[in-house]
Specification:
heterodimer; A: 14 helices; 10 strands; about 55% helix; B: alpha/beta; Rossmann fold; 6-stranded mixed sheet; 4-stranded antiparallel sheet; 7 helices; globular
């Protein structure tokens, strides 16, 4: 007997119970679609963050307060809580030192509530020196950046990232408008070019920059929260790190600061996101497993229901192997059809979701979903199929 | 005298019921020759169903020897046994046992699917058989659209599909009214006249008397 005949038998049986077959595949459809969708969200996040980091220039070194252990799970959280012991003399020494360091800026970080004509948003408001825009490759798209004069005079001027501008000013030209940050009036003098990426919360475009000297008053702090150092070139990054460390140690203790280079930071974040992606995929595959159990359940019901048919087929000369194959193919067809529909739905879902956040369907998740769903069919189909194949034809024929 | 098709020698079949061995049939020996029209008769519990399953190769004896076409069946694998069921035995059941939601034509095709006859050819054969059985206008009907007599005729058509050596009919008229029953019996008689070996299992003496040889079974033993 040819395999195409057995295939036809399986499809006739599945068609005979259309709604049941559909409901059974639904478990697999949901499982596969959610695996693909969740992995695409995780992968999209990784792609997004990597591109954002790279847009900041790969020569940048970050100096954060306290001891930050990136390997520890609480690394980043700890860094935020650490009290900064930097002061402007450190910046000054770094600027003046000869060697691999090109440019330096202190940075003040905090959250500000920004209002304009009744509209209010909350964003990161960072205080930096004008040189910051050169270090991080930010370019102006409208108006101007603040300059040394603004810094020296602690002018109340603000340069907006593209996102808060879009949020506050619908169609109006934002340049020259007076806005308030934490109830203090500022003049919006420039808008930065977008670095690209979706609308995620941790977006670099979602920042407002004010002069460093102004920010010390805004936050009522004198110590810079962090120091950004730019190395002369990518090759000199490690040299610049050593130089920075040497200079900071003149005044500070080893535990007072942590120097991170972008590569390291990025790989840590990516590692973290990779784990999250896998965890998301893992959670989704539980539903795939449940779908598989659903298939087994229905196949067992189907075997019991068709016990006379099986007996008859055996009496008509069907061998055990043919019966086994027939039921196995039914189970595999259910899971494979579910898998294919699931892949299509997952793909469409991630495209739709892609207009809100960055998603990236990875080919390996599609491949994985496909093989897992067919494997589910085999694994959960074998047991019912074997039961059918081993049925005693006499008992099966007598069964009422 | 025609050649021996099937020979049972000292066949016993025991079943275990709650740990106790029960002999369903014991020391049964018989020969069926080519072209014979035989009935196996006995009251319920006499072991006639067990004997039928053994003759139909749906079951295997606990002891004794079954020869089919001069070959000992004992040594065959389950696959080879399935092949004998497929090619050499045509079953007709009391409750027809047609596949539901499957046309008369496809039901007749079923054994030919398992013997690997290509689709076009088996449809032609099935059509010929159903025409001969007077079901020309019922080819695409489903079993639930047919009368009992018609269903049994389809079942006989299915039994004939692979042109088997033996037609094995288990109470073929048991679920039918008198008129349809007579028709079915006529069909079997005609098939026998054409040379088919036919074995009818029944508890109805009137039917048994229309066959040419009666094998009486009482308490698992042949009495005549």
């Amino acid at each position: 007997m040819e395999i195409s005949e057995i295939l036809k038998l399986a499809f006739i049986a599945l068609r005979a119970n259309k709604s049941r077959s559909f409901l059974t595949t639904l478990g697999i459809i949901i499982g596969v679609a959610s695996v693909i969708l969740l992995i695409s969200i995780g992968t999209g996040l990784q792609v997004f963050i990597t591109s954002q980091f790279e847009s900041l220039g790969s020569n940048t070194i970050y100096v954060l307060p306290g001891k930050v252990d990136l390997k520890a799970s609480s690394g980043f959280a700890a860094a935020v809580l650490n009290v900064s012991k930097f002061d402007l003399t450190d910046i000054d020494r770094l600027e003046k030192s000869e060697g691999a360091i090109k440019r330096v800026t202190p940075a003040m970080a905090g959250t500000g509530t920004i209002s304009y004509k009744g509209e209010t948003i909350t964003v990161e408001v960072a205080g930096v020196w004008p040189i910051y825009f050169n270090i991080t490759n930010f370019h102006i798209s409208q108006g101007r950046l603040f300059n040394k004069n603004d810094e020296d005079k602690s002018s109340k001027v603000a340069v907006f990232g593209s996102k808060p501008v879009n949020d506050l000013f619908k169609k109006e030209n934002p340049i020259g408008k007076i806005i308030t940050i934490n109830d203090i009036q500022y003049k919006l003098i420039g808008v930065l070019e977008s670095k690209g990426g979706g609308g995620l919360g941790a977006n670099i475009d979602n920042h407002v920059f004010i002069p460093y000297s102004t920010s010390t008053r805004l936050y009522n702090k004198t110590n810079p929260y962090a120091i950004y150092v730019e190395a002369l070139s990518q090759q000199k990054v490690s040299e610049a790190i050593k130089q920075t460390e040497r200079i900071l140690l003149k005044r500070l203790k080893k535990d007072d600061f942590t120097i991170l280079e972008q590569k390291e930071l990025l790989s840590t974040i990516n590692q973290f996101l990779g784990v999250i992606t896998l965890a998301l995929g893992g959670i989704a595959s539980i539903s795939l497993l449940v779908g598989g159990i659903g298939i087994m359940n229905i196949m067992l019901v189907s075997v019991t229901e068709r016990i006379r048919e099986i007996g008859l087929r055996k009496a008509m000369g069907a061998t055990e192997n043919i019966i086994l194959l027939q039921f196995l193919i039914e189970a595999i067809s259910l899971s494979l059809i579910g898998g294919i529909i699931g892949i299509i739905l997952g793909f469409l879902g991630s495209v739709v979701l892609g207009s809100f956040i960055k998603t990236a369907v990875s080919w390996w998740s599609v491949l994985l979903a496909f093989f897992v769903s067919s494997a589910v069919g085999v694994i959960f189909g074998v047991f019912p199929a074997q039961r059918a194949a081993k049925l005693n034809p006499i008992d099966a024929l007598r069964y009422e | 005298m025609a050649e021996v098709l099937l020979r049972l020698k000292n066949i016993c079949r025991t079943f275990k019921l709650d740990g106790v061995s029960v002999k369903a049939i014991c020391n049964v020996s018989l020969e069926i020759r080519k072209g014979e029209f035989v009935s196996i008769i006995g009251p319920s519990g006499s072991g006639k169903s067990t004997l039928m399953y053994l003759i139909g190769f749906l079951d295997r004896p606990s002891s004794g020897e079954i020869m089919f076409n001069g070959k000992n069946v004992e040594s065959l694998s389950s696959g080879e046994i399935a092949r004998i069921r497929n090619k050499e035995i045509g079953f007709v059941f009391q409750s027809f046992n047609l596949l539901p939601k499957t046309s008369a034509l496809d039901n007749v095709c079923l054994p030919m699917v398992y013997s690997g006859i290509p689709r076009k050819e088996r449809i032609k054969i099935a059509k010929d058989i159903l025409t001969k059985l007077g079901l020309t206008d019922r080819l695409t009907h489903f079993p639930n659209q047919l009368s009992g007599g018609e269903q049994q005729r389809v079942a006989i058509g299915r039994a004939l599909a692979n042109n088997p050596s033996i037609i094995l009919a288990d109470e073929p008229t048991g679920n039918l009214d008198t008129k349809s029953g007579k028709e079915i019996l006529e069909i079997l008689k005609n098939l026998n006249k054409e040379g088919k070996t036919i074995i009818i299992v029944t508890h109805n003496i009137e039917i048994a008397e229309q066959t040419r040889r009666i094998i009486r079974l009482v308490d698992g033993r042949i009495t005549n």
